[in-house]
């Protein structure tokens, strides 16, 4: 028999790559394909629009950031599963004075929860300003504060909260274990990423983190 190379889940890479932009430093994901049909490959294009630097070298994708974010105006109709992570970055960009609009994601209302309503509600809990549109979200500048966030038993909402918590003090989450739907090892990987940073270059909270992901799961 032959050998088949199974790609890592590129959508699940999003929260880890986002961490580099939020906290400053770099995060690397090995075994990134040079060509793929996965929606998560769009991170290469999306993250630079939010203020990051992304490189793909010898099969390893590396995101770098400084903690300074920019707003984004993006049609995510083909990559809707990335929207909660993009929304987290846009929310933090809002705290830095930037407006973002996310469109083409009306279908997110039919996931584990109505993700558009859930995202808007959680952003407002944090002190942010978020408005639902017909097919997306408008996130406007506003200062943020800590809050007790809900996952809605939705893995993408849980990772939204994890990203926010890198930058905003006093953020808690009611259920992180729902991330096991698509990434059973999320909490261990997240903790290891932060521990690697704490022991490494202290100029960035994610400096030098190297995250090994599993193949895609069965959830969007």
Q: How would you characterize this protein structure?
A:
- The chain is α/β, with parallel strands linked by helices.
- Helices cover 30% and strands 17% of the residues.
- It has one domain: Enolpyruvate transferase domain (UDP-n-acetylglucosamine1-carboxyvinyl-transferase, Chain, Alpha-beta prism), CATH 3.65.10.10.
- It has 6 helices and 10 strands.
- Strands 2-3-1-10 form a 4-stranded mixed β-sheet. A 4-stranded mixed β-sheet has the order 4-5-7-6, with helices on one face. Strands 8-9 form a two-stranded parallel sheet.
- Strand 8, helix 5 and strand 9 form a beta-alpha-beta unit.
- The two termini are 31 Å apart.
- 50% of the residues are buried.
Total strand count, please? Answer: 10
CATH superfamily: Enolpyruvate transferase domain
- Percent range of helical residues: 25-40%
Q: How are the strands ordered across the major sheet?
A: 2-3-1-10
Using the coordinates above, name the CATH class. Alpha Beta
Total helix count?
A: 6
For the residues shown, what is the average pLDDT?
90
H/E element sequence: HEHEEEHEHEEEHEHE
Structural class: alpha/beta
Shape: globular
How many domains, as an integer? 1
Q: Indicate the radius of gyration in whole angstroms.
A: 16 Å
How far from one another are the termini? 31 Å
Q: Which stretches are low in confidence, meaning pLDDT under 50 for 5 or more residues running?
A: 201-208
CATH topology: UDP-n-acetylglucosamine1-carboxyvinyl-transferase, Chain
Instruction: Please indicate the percent range of residues in DSSP E strands (runs of 2 or more).
Output: 15-25%
Q: Architecture, according to CATH?
A: Alpha-beta prism
Q: How would you sum up the major sheet?
A: 4 strands, mixed
